């Protein structure tokens, strides 16, 4: 039955991208994926809830990955590089979900919108906290305001939605590696930059040892 839920979501994503949220009915969705209305309402109380689940899927993914990174890694630098990698990859894994989010987010019901906002704020706070912890431990430059540095990271990565193409010159992993390099170069202190443990996250090391 879980396969049916995925089919319904995939059809909804395709139809919402093509016709817009209000241009698609439940009947069209179930017809597109060869399901029944009963099957639809088994998983979703309404089309509004379906739109919420589409939004929630990728936001929950990046939030879970950020929480896992903070638990798995000991240092802020390691935590941040893992968070950025998973954040960038979401634009490949959930490209259609994100496209629908940007197109149709204004149609979310207030209670659903509040739940999405809560998770987005939690993810944002994770980044702010990691940056601040990096400064307190002497790994990140103390002169950078943590919230502005965090918003710069969020803004840069979020813009990937506008230009990333699956068949582009660089793979999503290549792009995430480039972003990590850019972010660490503006955050790391000179002393932290020289640490052998962090050299593996920098592009020069990757090019010479892996991509050559």
UniProtKB/TrEMBL annotation:
Pfam families on file: TetR_C_24, TetR_N
Record-annotated DNA-binding residue ranges: 25-44
Keyword check for Repressor: yes
SUPFAM superfamilies: Homeodomain-like (SSF46689), Tetracyclin repressor-like, C-terminal domain (SSF48498)
Keywords, in A-Z order: DNA-binding, Repressor
Domain HTH tetR-type intervals: 2-62
Name of this protein: TetR/AcrR family transcriptional regulator
Source species: Pontibacillus salicampi
């Amino acid at each position: 039955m879980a396969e049916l839920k995925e089919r319904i979501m995939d059809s909804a994503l395709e139809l919402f991208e093509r016709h817009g949220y209000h241009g698609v009915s439940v009947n069209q969705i179930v017809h597109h994926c060869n399901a029944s209305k009963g099957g639809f309402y088994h998983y979703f109380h309404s089309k509004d809830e379906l739109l919420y689940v589409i939004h929630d899927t990728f936001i929950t993914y990046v939030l879970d990955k950020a929480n896992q990174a903070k638990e798995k890694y000991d240092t802020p630098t390691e935590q941040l590089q893992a968070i950025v990698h998973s954040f960038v990859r979401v634009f490949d894994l959930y490209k259609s979900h994100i496209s629908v989010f940007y197109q149709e987010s204004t149609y979310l019901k207030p209670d659903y919108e509040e739940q999405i906002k809560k998770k987005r704020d939690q993810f944002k706070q994770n980044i702010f906290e990691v940056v601040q912890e990096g400064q307190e431990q002497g790994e990140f430059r103390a002169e950078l305001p943590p919230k502005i540095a965090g918003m710069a990271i969020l803004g840069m990565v979020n813009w990937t939605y506008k230009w990333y193409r699956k068949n582009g010159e660089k793979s999503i992993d290549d792009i995430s590696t480039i972003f990590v390099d850019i972010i660490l170069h503006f955050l790391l202190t000179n002393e932290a930059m020289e640490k052998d443990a962090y050299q593996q996250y920098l592009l020069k090391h990757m090019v010479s040892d892996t991509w050559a």
